[in-house]
């Protein structure tokens, strides 16, 4: 390269989480809370959805929509948090050098995981029947007129070793296990990274690589199963064999967008001096590439079901495409998550300049939220769903809460892993 | 003097020396014809001041052509030429066309890109390659300077610049 000179970067920099930044995030949170409040009031007073007698005497209650919103954001932001840790681990497994100054940015998203886990478990117990059809005990009672043979066949996956229809031990155990191990790995990574800051040397890198490998194996299994548990089990009868990957792809694009946005935000504030357009370009490539990967999976799932047209499979898309509430969002989903990043991020320049990436990544975060909205609401709310004040409000509340937690965690330690053996390599990263 | 026939060649041992030499030679006003190296030297096209390749644009256009051809072909066949009902879908069932359109996009983008690259790099099967110095396929970097392109400068002066920039040898080479 043209410049071979000495580098004088400030490796001790810390993110200063100023009161002003906190205030603007809090403002968004309050706006979100107000919108959410309006949404709740509207849902409580708007009686036009109360059609008793439908679906086996089940009347629609306003709080079901609140639960569905909690669940959408639980799943969506859990994904962003765990993808931060996942992408961090990938860097070590792949022995990547270019990303060294971004490692702490990635890892900081994991700070949301403990809260995400608590929220997920709490929402499950709060919403229970209102989100998950399979939690009804009568489905498993052969003497009940509403006995469901198909769900009974799947019952053990939720209730083992207890009797079906009682307490979903296996399901809850998986939830606790996944979050438990994710948090454990996250803390381990943080600790090793911290020790490296103090002691230096290459041993921490090797240690991190081993732990990353363990994590990736665990994540490969847990990410798929959590997608079945938390999302696919809503439509209990229905199944799709690539659903785990599809949810993972959506998570991964959201997580990469969040990492890219945070990087650009930090650079805008004058941090991460050694991160230049080459590093940003690589992040842009990831966002671009995995947007296409997401589309590939979305379409693979759709095409096979559409082409075979087996009723028990195609009902999933009929519920969505033929719905006056969700039909249009299918195309919004594809437009925001495929056509937009595909066309805008195709050129080299758009991946190297913050303006385009900021725009596309922000839209992608909304787009993949819509993706999860489309996975969760039709099965829980049916035609009583939609995007209104409650959805926008809840998204803003969650988003700003995540921002507060993630930035708070980021501010605690140095932004750069200063003793990382590949730091020098990342200075010379050039593509 | 005729263009593209008489060259001065600087032979370099080391890629770092070469990179600095390119900067130095260009800095002193000498126009470099081309640099030949046994392996890709990172940053070489940057110091040579090459403009970015327009190959991706060709790839995009060929890809677009592939998509359009595939969609037209399938639409014509399935709707007009020989309408068939498959799986109870419409004649022109758009989702069915996507896999073929995708493949045609990839195929034409790849073929088109390779073709354009071969044409623009003069990689015709019958083309006679010009070899400036055989050692550029082994362990030497060769900087070629077209004398006709630098007519404002004295040949001896150019040789001097090359030698002082770290060239281990400075040779002349003429083609018929």
Automatic annotation (TrEMBL), chain A:
TM spans (from-to): 24-46, 66-90, 102-127, 167-186, 213-231, 243-266, 286-308, 328-346, 355-376, 388-411
Keywords attached to this entry: Membrane, Transmembrane, Transmembrane helix
Region forming the signal peptide: none
Protein name per the record: Quinol:cytochrome c oxidoreductase quinone-binding subunit 2
Source organism per UniProt: Algoriphagus boseongensis
Automatic annotation (TrEMBL), chain B:
Keyword Transmembrane helix: yes
InterPro entries recorded: ActD (IPR021776)
UniProt superkingdom: Bacteria
Keywords: Membrane, Transmembrane, Transmembrane helix
Transferase in keyword set: no
Transmembrane segments annotated in the record for this chain: 57-77, 97-120
UniProt protein name: Quinol:cytochrome c oxidoreductase membrane protein
Species in which this protein is naturally found: Algoriphagus boseongensis
